[in-house]
Amino acid sequence: MIIDREKALELHRRARGKIRIYPTVNIRNEEDLAVAYVQGGVWAARAIQENPEDIYEYTGRGNRLALISDGTAVLGMGNIGAEAALPVMEGKCLLFKNFGDVNAIPLCINAKGAEDIIAMAKLAAPTFGAINIEDVSSPNSFTVVERLQEELDIPVICDDQHGSAVVVLAALMNSLRLVEKELGEISVVILGAGAAGIAVARLLLHAGVERMTILNRCGILGPGNGCMNFVQEEMATRINTEGRTGSIDDAMNGADVFVGLSSRGKISADHVRRMNPGAIVLALSMPDPEISFDEASAAGAAVFAEGLTGTLNAMPNLHAYPGIARGLLDVRARGLNENILMAASRAIAGAVDRRRLTKRCIVPDLFSDEVTPRVAEAVEKHLIQALILPAN
Length: 392
What we know:
It is a single chain. The protein is α/β, with parallel strands linked by helices. The chain is 45% helix and 12% strand. The chain folds into 2 domains: 5-159, Malic enzyme, N-terminal domain (Rossmann fold); 160-392, 3-Layer(aba) Sandwich (Rossmann fold), CATH 3.40.50.720. It contains 16 helices and 10 strands. The strands form 2 sheets. Strands 7-6-5-8-9-10 form a 6-stranded mixed β-sheet. Helix 13 (293-298) links the parallel strand 9 (279-283) and strand 10 (301-306). The radius of gyration is 22 Å and the shape is globular.
């Protein structure tokens, strides 16, 4: 779907912001004012001072999420800065609200590095029930998320990492049913080793995938690759113990699944022909995929999907993050882990009726009203069973 530039700018000009703050309490007289603000606010403040957990009873913290970005990896634009990132972050907050009824607040910050983002998030944490780190470049994205998950007592989400991983695993679960293969027996190639690529690899490993190859701009992650950051090096030690080297030409030989998180035109029909029968091609780069549906299908791809909405088997992260956030907030979760993400993936995959599951329908409809409640319920059930909840 191609959106006209002037139409988009006119919407933003007219709206002057895609989210607003509305009161939940009416103030019609002096008593209302006193109860809601000075005198009443003091009683609520004292109650929270005596029992900090009461903050969830007397404030909106429990349904409030901070969407923090430094603007260094925004969609396909890269490092555009905090100010330019704001309309994108406002749009993301709109989706959190519309699809998950989560009150998300955009915080675009002029950070000089990971430590600035971490400091900002920790200072703001008392106001929020969860934090989403958005469009922060890798490897800073991993540094920020992992540090905050260790140091805060609220869940820290990164849609670029967690949302991407969840939707890929969900699509793969359904695709494998169609081609009659199992996670433990397939060979996966991931092209793109940024935040999304590494997070997808981590979740697939946790789900049981044993054979995986990841490539960055210098080729296969492993010995001799001079372009690896510390996150990529750590992943290479996990998945490439035999020291494989080479390019995408080498990696695609005998692959069962291709996951593209790179850019337009990065693979050809010849690459797809090198894959095993029943090949699954998830060409998720945006706005244009690594290979077109027509090219991939003609070369023998059994299942094909893209990342952009309005395309065949569109796999937007929108299937994942509203429901994950909703579930985490509803039970006041303290953290997030791969088992929770696995539960979310299974919920998304299960939202496609088995009778409707075909090579042209491996993920739910974008506007299905079942997806977010299913994901939220799955997250909540897992958390309750695993007791990743407040002490009381």
